[in-house]
Design goal:
Elements: H1 20-28, E1 32-38, E2 42-44, H2 49-54, E3 61-62, E4 74-81, H3 83-96, E5 102-107, E6 110-114, H4 120-131, E7 139-142, H5 148-153, E8 156-159, H6 165-170
Helix pairs in contact: 1-3
Length: 171
Amino acid sequence: TLIGKYTTLEQIYEKIDELDVTEKIKEKFDCCDCHFASTDSVNLLTSGNYLKKYIPEREFHYFDGSFEDIPENVYKYIVCCDPENMDEIRKFAESVSGKEIKIIQSSPFFLEILPPKNSKGKSLERLCKIVGIPLENSVAAGDYENDSDMILAAGIGAAVENAQESLKEKA
């Protein structure tokens, strides 16, 4: 409820400049969906069939353009695929990415491609600063790899019961 007092917030995330990884995944694999998240929407670059399979209740926007037309306010790309294809797609993404990219899994079917400085931990730090709460007085809980930085940054970090074992070890 505290955050509702703020009508404008500084952008917490760094924008992503590296398009190559997502474009190469889209070209190589037809067993996944690719989409991007910007400061104002989530836009599909592919059919959306995999995304609809795992999140059927959500409405999605289709991006009508090429990779060169993607707006500058993109802070991450997301690949959605069946869990049995995740390891192969992730290994490929890591093999074609540079140092300026972080590749993390956020669910059994989501792989996120983002700048190395973007994380839930950095967002928690920024949010605490905005609302005037010391970071050591914050609490965070998570279940997947993308929650790791947030759990480590929080004053109290917890992993939920169904969390990945590696995350439980960090909590």
